[in-house]
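#onboarding

Welcome to the new folks! Below is a worked example of what a typical request in this channel looks like: someone posts a single protein sequence, and someone else replies with the predicted structure as tokens. Don't worry about understanding the tokens yet, we'll cover that in week two.

Example request:
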Amino acid sequence: MKTYSALFEHRKVTLPAFVLLFCGFLQQSSFNQKDFEKLAPITGTWVTKRSRGDIYETWKRTSKKEFAGLSFTLAGVDTTPLEKVRLYITGSEIVYAPVAIGQNDDKEVLFRLKSIEGGRFVFENLQHDFPKRIVYDFKTNDSLYAHIEGEVNGQSRRVNYPYKRIQ
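Example response:
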């Protein structure tokens, strides 16, 4: 009876761990090169108008498996870089990897693609402070709605970037 009890106790401990591990696998998304190609409309230059200076994103294709992006503000004649981004596919993952200028020791923060719905791409990193999600939604060939979201001081926060293609 003692042996059965020890085995039963062991099962009670490992069953929840197994369930959590299995659920983690279910949440993992698998993408391929065809999915990555759906991001091709990002190439070009985009602008969103802001009172403190317009924000620009410019993207180019650097290889079959990678895009490179740069965002900056332009206020009058002053240009201020905001971040550099690598958007790439590795194995079955598509990764959005920004380097925010002057943050995170100028190291990439990795956001993995979680879903594609039409022209809407949701990248996520729940361990990051803010944002936790980055969303790109291609509405038309010349219209891109992006936003970042997460929590700041326990409050939900979302910042919208309605971009128009200029090039």
